[in-house]
Amino acid sequence: MSGEDRLVEVSGDGYPVGLRDLEDPPPIHVLGQLTPSPGVAVVGTRRCTRYGIDLAESFGHVVARSGWTTVSGLARGIDAAAHRGALRSEGHAVAVLGCGTDVCYPRENRPIYDRILDTGGAIVSEYPQGTPPARWRFPARNRLIAAMSAAVVVIEASRTGGALITARLAAELGREVFAVPGDVDREASEGCNRLLRDGAHPVLGAEDLVEELALILGPPPGTRVVRSIPDGGVDIEELAQLWNISISEVLVKVGTLELAGRARRRGGRVYPV
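^ thats the sequence. predicted structure below, dont judge the formating
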């Protein structure tokens, strides 16, 4: 199937619900497939640190693995890392472009672009095919990222970066905004620290993010795949072996099960509810 065969201009019931909150909802071109699962935007600066890249991959992975959609802009740095994390979990990823859906920008992210489509995700733009990237189109693109997401997570951002535009627009649309705190003297952390000062929710890691999102979006759809907890309770380490996942992943899943009222922790053991 060619890219042109998969390209549609969505309207009516197929139009992304969140975009209806915009003052002037634009025509939307979609290459691939959108789903009704809530979107969580993971965004940040192109000039990120290794720490930021690792966090972005972790956040993109846990969002998609939990059953939500990871939304970002396919830019260098944090955006690309968030997409890679989502694809690693084989979850649903959406890339929102500031050019036509058939134009992969930057070119170096072509493997991510192709993989998003191959795994059932979507490439989204308000611009017709063939539209080249232009500097002024990217701030406009950011309003789509904000509107298509139930929450926006900013990992690293400078004082004037595009991620802060996305966060501001998200707040104006009533979306929840999260930010990762960082060193006060690091340029890549200045934007996030300012967001926190102005009321954004601090997020301290992947487990923390899932728990915070579950309070907003409800229990992650992905929790339905978790195997049962033995009636007599079980140690965290034993549960990791039982489910064949890492201890950190067990803590994420148990945390969301607690929020859903399906499990409780006492001491180092987990009990079913």
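Confidence is low (pLDDT under 50) at residues 1-5.
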